[in-house]
C-alpha cells in the first residue's frame, strides 16, 4: 500500500465561525419563509411548555383548567422573554423558555407541610403558586446582580475552549432521559417519528421547491403533521382504551385535556394568582436552581453563537444576557409560570438542523407564542401533540448541541495528556454524579442530601443533579489549576483572546450591537 504523503492529507483548520449556513444571525430569509420557520420554532417550544405544568400542577392540587392557564402563562412569558433577549440581551437567536432545573426546589415547596395540610385542591394550588412566585422573585436577583454588575463577565474570563467542551456537550447529552426513554413509552409513535425526521431532514435535504430546500428547513413540521394525524387516528379508533395509564398519557392526543379546559381568549397578567408570599427557606433553595440555569444558559449561548454562524459572545455581551435572563425569571415570578427561565436547548439545535441562524426567525416565533397563548383554544390544539413526538425530535436536537460542544476541541491540543484528562474526567463525572443523584431520588423519594435544613438539601440536590453544572465545576477548576503556566496555547485561550472584549474583534459589533442606537447610552466594555 502506497504511503500517504503529508501534503496529500486533508487539513481542517480551526474556524471561529461555523460555515455552511444559508442565513446567519443578522441575515434574514424572505418574510414568508421566516414566518414558516418561526412557526416551526413555536411548535418545538410547546414540548417543554406543556410538560412542566403537566408534571407540576396536579401535584400542587390544580385541576385541568389550572393546568391550561399555567401553560398559557408560561408560553406568554416565554414569548416576552425571547423578545427581550433577542433585542437587548445577547441578541443571539435563542428562545428563553421554562427550565427543568427548577423542578427540585419547586417540588420542595409543593411538599411543604404548611401547604400539604390544605384540604381544598384549588386553594392549595393557588397558595403553592404564590409561594413559588415569591421564591422566583427573590432568587432572580442573583442573575440580575451577576449580569448587570459584569461579575459574570469576570468569571467567564476563566472559561477556555477546553473548559467549555464538557459544559456545552452536557447541555445536550445531559438531557438524554428526555430522548429515547420517552420514545420507549410509546414506540409505535416515537420510533416512526424519529426515523421519518432523520430521513427527511438528512437524506432528502436536497429536495427543492422553488429553489428552497423544503425538506431541510421544514422537515420537522412535515413529520409532526404526519405522525400527529397517525396518533390521532390511533386515539380515535380506541387503540389505547385498554392499555396502561402510562401508555395512554404517552400516546394519546390531548391526554392533558388542554383543548377542553382552555378558555377561548385569556390574557395572562402579573399577580393573576394573587400576591406572592415570601419564605426564606424557599428563596434560598430556589437560588440553587438560578445558578444551575445560569450555567446551562452560558453553555447554550456558546452553542447558539456557533449555530448562528456568529463569533463567540464577548464576556460583556454574555453577562448582559444573563442580566436579562434574571429579568425573565423575575417575570416568571410576577406572572406565575410555576418555573424559571433558561435557553430552550431544542430550539438551539433546530438552528443547526435547518441551517438558519436568523435572529428575525426567533423573534417571529416569540410573536406566535404570545398570540397563541392569548387565543387559548387554538394554542391548546397545537399543545395536544403527544410528548413522544417531541422526544423523537429531542434525540436529534440534543445530539446536535452535544456535537457543537465537541467542536470546540478544534481550538485545543488534544495530543496533550493534560487536556485529555480534563475533558475525560469532567465529561464522565458530569454524567455520573447527576445520574447517582437521580437514581437516589427515584428510589428513596429524597436526594442524597436530606438534612433538616430543606434549603440546604435543595442546594446540593439541584446543583449536583445538573450535568452541565457539575462539568463546569470540575472542568474549570482543573483547567485553571493544573499545569496552567505552560498550557495557555494548548487550552485554546489564544483563539478566544480577541473575543474577551467587545472591541477585540470587528465582527462583535456586527453581531452584538444593541438596536435603536442604544450603545450610545450603554457603551460596551
TrEMBL record:
Membrane topology qualifier: Multi-pass membrane protein
Transmembrane segments: 39-58, 70-88, 94-110, 131-152, 158-176, 183-203, 218-240, 361-383, 389-408, 420-439, 459-478
Cell location: Membrane
GO cellular component, as recorded: membrane
Keywords of this entry: Membrane, Transmembrane, Transmembrane helix
InterPro entries linked to this entry: MetI-like_sf, NCS2
GO terms of molecular function: transmembrane transporter activity
NCBIfam families: NCS2_1
Family: Belongs to the nucleobase:cation symporter-2 (NCS2) (TC 2.A.40) family.
Protein name according to UniProt: Nucleobase-ascorbate transporter 2
Source species of the chain: Lolium multiflorum
Amino acid at each position: 500500500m502506497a504511503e500517504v504523503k503529508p501534503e496529500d492529507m486533508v487539513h481542517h483548520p480551526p474556524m471561529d465561525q461555523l460555515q455552511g449556513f444559508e442565513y446567519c444571525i443578522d441575515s434574514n430569509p424572505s418574510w414568508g419563509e421566516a414566518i414558516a420557520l418561526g412557526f416551526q420554532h413555536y411548535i418545538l417550544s410547546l414540548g417543554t411548555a406543556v410538560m412542566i405544568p403537566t408534571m407540576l400542577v396536579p401535584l400542587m392540587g390544580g385541576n385541568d383548567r389550572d393546568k391550561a392557564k399555567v401553560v398559557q402563562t408560561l408560553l406568554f412569558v416565554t414569548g416576552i422573554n425571547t423578545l427581550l433577549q433577542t433585542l437587548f440581551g445577547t441578541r443571539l437567536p435563542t428562545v428563553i423558555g421554562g427550565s427543568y432545573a427548577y423542578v427540585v426546589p419547586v417540588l420542595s415547596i409543593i411538599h411543604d407541610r404548611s401547604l400539604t395540610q390544605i384540604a381544598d385542591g384549588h386553594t392549595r394550588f393557588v397558595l403553592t403558586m404564590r409561594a413559588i412566585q415569591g421564591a422566583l422573585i427573590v432568587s432572580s436577583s442573583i442573575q440580575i446582580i451577576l449580569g448587570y454588575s459584569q461579575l459574570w463577565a469576570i468569571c467567564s474570563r476563566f472559561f477556555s475552549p477546553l473548559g467549555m467542551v464538557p459544559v456545552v456537550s452536557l447541555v445536550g447529552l445531559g438531557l438524554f432521559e428526555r430522548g429515547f426513554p420517552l420514545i420507549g413509552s410509546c414506540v409505535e409513535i416515537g420510533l416512526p417519528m424519529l426515523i421519518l425526521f432523520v430521513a427527511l431532514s438528512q437524506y432528502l435535504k436536497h429536495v427543492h421547491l422553488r429553489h428552497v430546500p423544503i425538506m431541510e428547513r421544514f422537515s420537522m413540521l412535515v413529520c409532526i403533521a404526519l405522525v400527529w394525524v397517525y396518533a390521532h387516528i390511533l386515539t380515535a379508533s380506541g387503540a389505547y382504551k385498554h392499555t396502561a395509564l402510562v401508555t395512554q398519557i404517552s400516546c394519546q392526543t390531548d391526554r392533558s385535556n388542554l383543548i377542553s379546559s382552555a378558555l377561548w381568549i385569556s390574557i395572562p397578567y402579573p399577580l393573576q394568582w394573587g400576591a406572592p408570599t415570601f419564605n426564606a427557606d424557599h428563596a434560598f433553595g430556589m437560588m440553587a436552581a438560578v445558578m444551575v440555569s445560569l450555567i446551562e444558559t452560558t453553555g447554550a449561548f456558546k452553542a447558539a453563537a456557533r449555530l448562528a454562524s456568529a463569533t463567540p459572545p464577548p464576556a460583556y455581551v454574555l453577562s448582559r444576557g444573563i442580566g436579562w435572563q434574571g429579568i425573565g425569571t423575575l417575570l416568571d415570578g410576577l406572572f406565575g409560570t410555576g418555573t424559571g427561565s433558561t435557553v430552550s436547548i431544542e430550539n438551539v439545535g433546530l438552528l443547526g438542523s435547518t441551517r438558519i441562524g436568523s435572529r428575525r426567525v426567533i423573534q417571529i416565533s416569540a410573536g406566535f407564542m404570545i398570540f397563541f397563548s392569548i387565543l387559548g383554544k387554538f394554542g391548546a390544539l397545537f399543545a395536544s401533540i403527544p410528548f413522544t413526538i417531541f422526544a423523537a425530535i429531542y434525540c436529534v436536537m440534543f445530539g446536535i448541541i452535544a456535537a457543537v460542544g465537541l467542536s470546540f476541541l478544534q481550538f485545543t491540543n488534544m495530543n496533550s495528556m493534560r487536556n485529555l484528562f480534563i475533558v475525560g474526567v469532567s465529561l464522565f463525572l458530569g454524567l455520573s454524579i447527576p445520574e447517582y443523584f437521580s437514581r437516589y431520588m427515584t428510589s428513596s423519594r429524597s436526594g442524597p442530601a436530606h438534612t433538616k435544613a430543606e434549603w440546604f438539601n435543595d442546594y446540593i440536590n439541584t446543583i449536583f443533579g445538573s450535568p452541565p453544572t457539575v462539568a463546569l465545576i470540575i472542568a474549570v477548576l482543573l483547567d485553571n489549576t493544573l499545569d496552567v503556566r505552560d498550557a495557555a496555547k494548548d487550552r485554546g485561550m489564544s483563539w478566544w483572546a480577541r473575543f474577551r472584549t467587545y472591541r477585540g474583534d470587528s465582527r462583535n459589533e456586527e453581531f452584538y450591537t444593541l438596536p435603536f442606537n442604544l450603545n450610545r447610552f450603554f457603551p460596551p466594555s
